[in-house]
Design brief:
By secondary structure, the chain is α+β, with helices and mostly antiparallel strands. About 15% of the residues lie in helices and about 25% in strands. The strands form 5 sheets. Strands 11-6-5-12 form a 4-stranded antiparallel β-sheet.
Length: about 260
């Protein structure tokens, strides 16, 4: 192009990223390194920005055997910290497990005996117990101990490992901050659970699984949340566990102390 016979430089053209590519790039910002699930392709991730509050991406192991879950709920709860929940492309790291519920525990659903809703709690260890709370939230519990005992562990919080776009869509939030998964109802929603998943075996491939993962370096303990109806000794029992040093923990945090 010329003006008065003098050549004029052509301005550079910049190619805009497509919305789909931008969404893919956001998913890769969670952590660096390579994560590979058994039978699934590797996911390469770019380093996260300094402002993003994330945990290091753990290696994904195999599904835990049934025997892993067949222990007292109070023993299973801290052992679940750092393990991974997988359903379809979504993988979550368990950062706050929670709360253990045991036989003769006035806060446990099993205190009323076997009902249509609580029957999975009395089933074999390693199955899911999913119930609807306040008509809104799907709460995921891991059944503990042997069949007939009536014990479980509530999963309170997680951090994302893969499937961020699906997590955000299910949660209806386009954030990458801990508010996305810090709370038991949020975990159930992120996994797309319904009560139909209750009694599902968590140690078999496909569906909903609990996979092995690295043990945390530190653990916090404190009293359980929202059980004011229970007896005083059960309200005060330090049966809530969380990984130390992670922001992916639900409120209240000030009741947690190093184990």
């Amino acid at each position: 192009m010329t003006t008065s016979g003098v050549p004029t430089a052509t301005p550079p053209r910049f190619k805009r990223s497509s919305p789909r590519k931008k969404s893919q790039l956001r998913s890769r910002r969670l952590a660096s390194g390579e994560v590979q699930a058994a039978g699934a392709p590797a996911l390469t991730r770019a380093p996260p920005p300094a402002s993003l509050e994330v945990d290091a991406v753990p290696p994904i192991g195999r599904a835990l055997p049934r025997e892993f879950f067949e222990v007292d709920a109070l023993d299973l709860a801290p052992r679940l910290l750092g393990k991974l929940l997988r359903r379809d492309e979504v993988v979550l790291r368990i950062t706050e497990v929670v709360e253990a519920y045991r036989p003769n525990d006035s806060a446990c659903h099993g205190r009323f005996g076997i009902t249509a809703r609580t029957a999975p709690v009395f089933g074999q260890g390693g199955h899911a117990y999913v119930y609807l709370c306040y008509g809104l939230h799907m709460m995921l519990n891991v059944v503990a101990d042997m069949e007939g005992v009536g014990a479980a562990v509530l999963i309170r919080s997680c951090s994302p490992v893969s499937g961020l776009e699906t997590i955000q869509r299910r949660r209806g939030q386009q954030t990458e901050k801990p508010i996305l998964l810090t709370g038991p109802g949020k975990v159930g929603q992120a996994l797309g659970l319904s009560t139909d998943w209750s009694n599902h075996p968590l140690y078999t491939p496909g569906g909903l699984e609990v996979l092995d993962g690295p043990e945390p370096q530190g653990i916090l303990v404190g009293p359980r949340v929202g059980i004011e109806y229970a007896s005083p000794e059960h309200v005060a029992a330090p049966w809530r566990f969380a990984i130390a040093g992670t922001p992916w923990i639900s409120a209240p945090k000030n009741t947690l102390r190093p184990r």
